[in-house]
Amino acid sequence: MITTSEMTETDLSIFESLESEVRSYCRSFPTVFEKAKGYKLWDTQGTEYIDFFSGAGALNYGHNDPVMKKTLIDYLSGDGIVHSLDMATTAKEQFLKRFKEVILEPRNLDYKVMFPGPTGTNTVESALKLARKVTGRNTVISFTRAFHGMTLGSLSVTGNAFKRKGAGIPLSHTVSMPYDNYDDNVDSLTLLERYLEDEGSGIDLPAAIILETVQGEGGINVASSEWLKQVEQICRRWDILLIVDDVQAGCGRTGTFFSFEPAGIRPDLVCLSKSLSGFGVPFAVTLIRPDLDQWAPGEHNGTFRGHNLAFLAATEALRFWETDTFAQEIQRKGKKTRSSLEQMIGKHPDLNGEVRGRGLMLGIAFSGKGFAEKVCAEAFQRGLIMETSGPDGEVAKLLPPLIIDHEGLEKGLAILEESITETKKAL
Amino acid sequence: MITTSEMTETDLSIFESLESEVRSYCRSFPTVFEKAKGYKLWDTQGTEYIDFFSGAGALNYGHNDPVMKKTLIDYLSGDGIVHSLDMATTAKEQFLKRFKEVILEPRNLDYKVMFPGPTGTNTVESALKLARKVTGRNTVISFTRAFHGMTLGSLSVTGNAFKRKGAGIPLSHTVSMPYDNYDDNVDSLTLLERYLEDEGSGIDLPAAIILETVQGEGGINVASSEWLKQVEQICRRWDILLIVDDVQAGCGRTGTFFSFEPAGIRPDLVCLSKSLSGFGVPFAVTLIRPDLDQWAPGEHNGTFRGHNLAFLAATEALRFWETDTFAQEIQRKGKKTRSSLEQMIGKHPDLNGEVRGRGLMLGIAFSGKGFAEKVCAEAFQRGLIMETSGPDGEVAKLLPPLIIDHEGLEKGLAILEESITETKKAL
Amino acid sequence: MITTSEMTETDLSIFESLESEVRSYCRSFPTVFEKAKGYKLWDTQGTEYIDFFSGAGALNYGHNDPVMKKTLIDYLSGDGIVHSLDMATTAKEQFLKRFKEVILEPRNLDYKVMFPGPTGTNTVESALKLARKVTGRNTVISFTRAFHGMTLGSLSVTGNAFKRKGAGIPLSHTVSMPYDNYDDNVDSLTLLERYLEDEGSGIDLPAAIILETVQGEGGINVASSEWLKQVEQICRRWDILLIVDDVQAGCGRTGTFFSFEPAGIRPDLVCLSKSLSGFGVPFAVTLIRPDLDQWAPGEHNGTFRGHNLAFLAATEALRFWETDTFAQEIQRKGKKTRSSLEQMIGKHPDLNGEVRGRGLMLGIAFSGKGFAEKVCAEAFQRGLIMETSGPDGEVAKLLPPLIIDHEGLEKGLAILEESITETKKAL
Amino acid sequence: MITTSEMTETDLSIFESLESEVRSYCRSFPTVFEKAKGYKLWDTQGTEYIDFFSGAGALNYGHNDPVMKKTLIDYLSGDGIVHSLDMATTAKEQFLKRFKEVILEPRNLDYKVMFPGPTGTNTVESALKLARKVTGRNTVISFTRAFHGMTLGSLSVTGNAFKRKGAGIPLSHTVSMPYDNYDDNVDSLTLLERYLEDEGSGIDLPAAIILETVQGEGGINVASSEWLKQVEQICRRWDILLIVDDVQAGCGRTGTFFSFEPAGIRPDLVCLSKSLSGFGVPFAVTLIRPDLDQWAPGEHNGTFRGHNLAFLAATEALRFWETDTFAQEIQRKGKKTRSSLEQMIGKHPDLNGEVRGRGLMLGIAFSGKGFAEKVCAEAFQRGLIMETSGPDGEVAKLLPPLIIDHEGLEKGLAILEESITETKKAL
């Protein structure tokens, strides 16, 4: 455990004086990080932290994967081209070929690959634009507690009131519908379909429905396969495009490369980013059903669509997906972790804890106001990095690197349990 | 010169079959790039190209600057933390300190630094959001031929009709006014001020005015210092925020670090990206007048705000700005290049060429439809990378790396001259 | 019954050649009307019609009420001022005084009276504007199948897809929620409240909720008193303004002057028009909770706010409300009519008819596609004017004048029954 | 002149306590009007006023025209149908026939007639809807200082900032361009055309341009015939619909029935209301180029589209247009009045008065803040009703009834002159 005296030695003054007030995680984790490897981080004072956060899902393969690292160093050493806009490069060529071989073909998926700019919000904005352009319709349906990004288009399909206010203008052309299990009294898809078939519903026929199969920022809410299939059927019936935002839930986080694989659905557009590069460098793609690829050349562009370090690392990351082993490992670890969490909350029935999630995208929802936040603060004091999610920060979220070993997982879970106990004592 | 037979050997099939139709530059430069150094690129067949494009302004310091490269390799080798969201890291700390010392303090500028996500459109969206939030107003005034990005908010202040149509929905909350010298019959700022002071103008008092001091994508249109000063005065008089989008014109491109320095204006918000990282990796900051930094923690966020490779390279890039030498060199090269361009078009008065630009952000506008595009195609055949800009692609644009040497500049200009002559012959 | 040969003698050519294609009722009732009195109309050929339509609810007191008529003739004869903008006139003074004495005071209602222009859409637009202005919020919640008017603001809170498309632009700043009994699987107010209390719902806190207590155009859908009370409580809890659009359901149509009286609610804003003038001349008022009357002078205006013929007739119409007798009569006739309708559909169980409504705002919903329309066409052939409503025109709507006598009601109902029987035969 | 003691006897308390704060003209003219005939009004105390306001242009034929009055009384006495939605009636038939014979045919105009609801804002909204629907475009271009109405669509094309704020939401889908002579430094149509032909202007190709040929509320600004012709040419060149809002300037106010006749243009859509009924009762039509009449039946509707008293009076009003005499009379009176106004301001060069207008739509703009308002207040004290217009109320507006006789005009002008002199003295 880090003592208070050590903490105070960390000098955060440059951040406090020069960086914008918008900074947030550095407030929850008030230290200066320096090194990282696998599932561990170290700050400038040499304190070690176990990572149950994984860069909000951007580090599924852990920090500084040695194979990727070597590839990047070799490439840099050989003066490989680093920035190339959307020109053809060997690094991009390899990524495209490997992505097709390792990801698309084995899953019988036929998509065109768009590089929309290197972040999650870039891919979401590109998908929304294309869906509206192709259908000639304006409205996009999103779901309660959705999180899709911070630029104007993505923010319009994001549920969080606090984030929405940041727009400074009314957010338009969207309709928010209840997510799976949002409310016991509402059968969300019955209502949606009712709206669509009723010429008097006031809901204009949408261009697209956009969803996360597991809502990360929204509080680790899991949509059932049945619900996802019904959404897909509604889309087919009404000729609505289905966009799966797999930015956080994709790249193996829930146990399969795409989070929608278990549901057996086939989205029209898929958004990938975060862990796609495998190394934590900015990267995103939009996957497009071929007949929908109606972009004119250059109709959407961006300076950092050709980030070759990302192409390289992402290509290396695909090695994890050549066989089923990695997916099975994630699922095994997921079950194990889930079971540990169930045990933990079983010991504290008064906390009304609820375990949520799928694969290694997990969380405990606590009913006590501010409880989850305190648990995470206690965990940090003990060397574990975890964050909250949900509209009121009511969920302690676990996103350990998928490559975490037995020891790391156990150690992290032990700290979490201790943190819950300590937080409860302090009530 | 690359022969046609060589060209056909390049296999672009994977890009054609798998990458979205939205790809564009790879159509103008149909080869596969592999390596790059300084102002040169090489494709897989070993053909060498001189770079007069610089990644659309993202490579002002050339490709693979050796000092930055060494820093990155060392950092990677030592398992420095690569991805850190908005947590404090040593790499970020150094960037903040150096940026303050080398850039802000010597220019007497007092700004808070926001990391809004790593691309140009992220910084523009963050500036628009903050301006609207702080003022409580909706409208933002932009200018004809402006280019600010492809996500919904940035696209709303972008002039290009083709790009705007990509949104699929009407773009709102913005007013487009004539840029400096847009039309000989319109005194653009007189009209703007008339609108503002007239309670019956139908133009709502705006939150902000956003502008580029030199419009890159819009056709290398240069705003005079006098015009910029007047815009600033209008902003002050009406309590409107002034946002300078220095994504393309900044980082030395026009001869000073910020493009607005010669005009002596002091924007309330500044958007930087493209060459900010120095190495072509995604990076952006939004500079905020301290009293406007009214963000709540986390009100705007994003996964790739903490891209430490970018912090490192960006910190190294600041070495160019420790003295005035680099700026003077850019200005000297700019004058020299401009003079060469003037000579070139002087030899072909029938082409009605017009040299435009400032510093090393230059272009020749040709009146003949498609002429500039053909010149760039000829240049590529001769080993020079150049692109067009302007609403009809009527401008052959020159953005050589600022670090280009005498030989490279001369060689590139010679190819350009030859390309113009050849294109004219083929008319 | 009118024979076909007679019908063909009616010359509608001037309407067909000169009037816009937008005309509609003249297609359902293809004759030229000339005179009207009480519950009867006559066309140019002297054919008599019983009116079960009452000008879509604008003629609750029947055609050409003799007292109002005399007042108007006397006023005109005496050169009373007819058009006065929003200047003070004796006619307006009398209306204000009487409206206060006869309507507001006995019901313990304290409202400021706004004259927003003489039509339903004028009053709705004024209420929406004021609600947004006073609260500083943008969103207004309306309900499925709502009908509030055809101008842009009112159309945005109208559910009908066909009407909405007429706008030619996306309709914004509104959220459509399920009306009472919209769907058996959805507890509409539970969902609404869930949305409001959830900071992640994606539904921005609204300025107002607008509703009709009985939806006329939407298909004679009746909200229960319990539901209305709950809506009011939600409004109070969240500081949302409650707007009751009583344009069609008000002025006694449902059995009390205001349709919301039985529910015991107290809307913040009330919209009245249609039968308010009593004589079928254009007139509307917006009733405003006094502390919300934050208009600046002239902030909303309009040429026909001072239609003195309407003030006069409306003042006379208030005589019906001096005692409870008229309300009791409406309720008695309503019950009687409802019972007749129940009997009618009881005879044809295969038609799946459903009686709907409250007071003398009644309808029969038929499940057969186009059945209700055919019934109304048969009724017209037999001398009864009735129209359909509902998103698919599935409801045969009964809006007889409230002053209709026993004979008229019986005669109309007999024709309706005959029309149902005939329509069924022709299936 | 009314003495102060008399004034105080007028009891306005019911208006002050019960009517909304939005009331405005009753504040400028604080008395209770009772009777009116021709160009005269009388209040309850018998004070006589000369009307130079004509109900903001709704009483071009004066108050209580005896022929119209008799027609209305006879119709009412005979129980003619008063309210008929959009059903065919004899009154409507006569109006359509006569409008075609007297107005459309002699002017070689071929329009379909739409009854969009009885007010100016109804006709404007219908024209905007149809233009957007037919073209499939969103943007409508309006002009600085335009006034088109108070409902959301009309307000979006209205220039006045104070009125716009009343919307409570941002007004969208419109672009405001400089009106003719808006600013000496701006050639407004050159700029407009520049915007349209420039693919980078940021102005989306509009559905329509809407304009008033003389802006009434905007300050009696007159567009030249040359300018109107150029606007029409621009519309033809770019396939943009031209909407002339002739609500205030039409029906003879400027010297011809349609205000656009002298310019020789042929709008695609024309909005008429105000004086159309001739008697001050609510009435409006939208004239539609036949091939644009693409409404589906009922796609736009409204309760008071069939206001038969308006049809009757409007038909009678057409008698004024059977020969050229009335138009010539208006023009003669207009010239005479203008000349008187020129003389008046000639006597007070220090007031910087500027005479504006066309026909009998005239005004004097005064540069002194609040001067025009004081002049009108003085005039009222002397028995003359006049109002101000312009964004700062800087114009004393003259809209005498077109039927005013020599004596009335002279008397009114004498009071105006006296009022100017008195106001100046009090400075």
Automatic annotation (TrEMBL), chains A, B, C, D:
PROSITE patterns cross-referenced by the UniProt entry: AA_TRANSFER_CLASS_3
Family annotation (CDD domains): OAT_like (cd00610)
Keywords: Aminotransferase, Pyridoxal phosphate, Transferase
Secretion signal span: none
Enzyme Commission code(s) on record: 2.6.1.76
GO-annotated molecular function: diaminobutyrate-2-oxoglutarate transaminase activity; diaminobutyrate-pyruvate transaminase activity; pyridoxal phosphate binding
Domain of life: Bacteria
Gene Ontology biological process: ectoine biosynthetic process
InterPro entries per UniProt: Aminotrans_3, Aminotrans_3_PPA_site, Dat, Ectoine_EctB, PyrdxlP-dep_Trfase, PyrdxlP-dep_Trfase_major, PyrdxlP-dep_Trfase_small
Entry-linked Pfam families: Aminotran_3
Record family assignment: Belongs to the class-III pyridoxal-phosphate-dependent aminotransferase family.
PANTHER family on file: DIAMINOBUTYRATE--2-OXOGLUTARATE AMINOTRANSFERASE (PTHR43552), DIAMINOBUTYRATE--2-OXOGLUTARATE TRANSAMINASE (PTHR43552:SF2)
The protein's name in its UniProt record: Diaminobutyrate--2-oxoglutarate transaminase
Species this protein is from: Kroppenstedtia eburnea
Organism taxonomic ancestry: Bacteria, Bacillati, Bacillota, Bacilli, Bacillales
